[in-house]
Design goal:
Layout: E1 8-9, H1 11-17, E2 23-27, H2 32-37, E3 39-40, E4 44-45, H3 48-51, H4 70-79, E5 87-91, H5 100-109, E6 115-118, H6 121-127, E7 132-133, E8 154-155, H7 157-163, E9 170-173, H8 177-180, E10 198-199, H9 215-226, E11 234-237, H10 244-253, E12 260-262, H11 265-269
Parallel strand pairs: 1-6, 2-4, 2-5, 5-6, 8-12, 9-10, 9-11, 11-12
Antiparallel strand pairs: 3-7
Helix pairs in contact: 1-6, 5-10
Length: about 280
């Protein structure tokens, strides 16, 4: 039985796996057209809106990218040929921030251990000499993945509202600082942030080359930030529950427990007549 893998895999290590029959390579970049034009050879495409979300008519109910039902996601995994024995590597072209980290979190939350995010993404693999393909790859579908509930912790709107006011808890907003401060809001209807939330942009998980910082550096940074508080006292969100997973991945890479994810995030909070803070309030 294979042991649990580290959350990240370097491109050079992926290159050594390219002929492994257990490998399922997933491209989670945004836009299928980009995938069809260029992707890592053998990679199957997953779409954030279609495969990783169950989008509702009103984002006030769960935000812009609410999670699908675990059983529904299990069917998606089966269609991709992913079984509990599969060695899954997922990437995008935004250093994991587009949807790769979200797919990683969802697969971990289904109880799957053999999943990693490609550090540095598509660009790093291409630079390392991984073969590139065009067009669409074909999966070998199998039975739905055998899981019926999310096994990683989630927070809802009411829990966030309660705990953001409690100094025992940390609510982390990983959006860019200008969005947190309310200086600009390119996607949602209202600018600002959840009162009591602190801002730790997900980009701070990366070095200047777009690779995740060393595990020890991230561990030091986050332990100082969280004052070594337990994971259950930390809630992480972003705009719609996607880039928040980048920070959860960084915490896992640092060897820390994965805290609660608030999937609805700012896109839900800001549409429910909740209080809004701007600046450094």
């Amino acid at each position: 039985m294979k042991s649990e893998l580290t959350p990240l895999i370097p491109a050079t290590n992926l290159l050594k796996l390219k002929n492994d029959p257990s490998l399922v390579l997933i491209d989670a970049g945004f836009g299928k057209e980009k995938y069809l034009q260029k992707h890592l050879s053998g990679a199957l495409y997953v779409d954030l809106n279609r495969d990783l979300s169950l989008i509702k008519e009103d984002p006030a109910e769960g935000g812009r990218h609410p999670l699908p039902d675990p059983l529904g996601f299990g069917k998606t995994l089966g269609n991709l040929g992913i079984t509990p024995e599969s060695r899954v590597v997922v990437y995008d072209d935004k250093q994991g921030a587009m949807s790769a980290a979200r797919f990683w979190w969802m697969l971990k939350a289904m109880g799957h251990q053999l999943v990693q995010v490609l550090d540095g993404g598509l660009q790093a693999a291409e630079a390392a000499g991984y073969p590139i393909s065009t067009g669409e790859e074909s999966a070998t579908p199998t039975a739905p993945y055998p899981a019926s509930e999310w096994q990683l912790p989630l927070a809802d709107l009411e829990e966030v509202a309660q705990k953001a006011k409690d100094p025992v808890y940390k609510v982390i907003d990983v959006r860019e600082t200008v969005r947190y401060l309310g200086e600009t809001e390119p996607i949602d209807l209202i600018a600002g942030h959840i009162p009591g939330a602190i801002n730790v942009p997900f980009g701070e998980n990366l070095d200047s080359n777009g690779h995740f910082l060393p595990a020890e550096t991230l561990k030091k940074n986050y332990l100082e930030l969280l004052a070594a508080g337990p994971a259950e006292n930390t809630l992480v969100h972003c705009g719609s529950g996607v880039t928040a997973c980048h920070t959860l991945l960084a915490l896992a890479h640092a060897g820390l427990a994965i805290p609660k994810l608030y999937i609805g995030s700012w896109s839900e909070w800001s549409r429910n007549n909740r209080p809004v803070a701007t600046g450094n309030e």
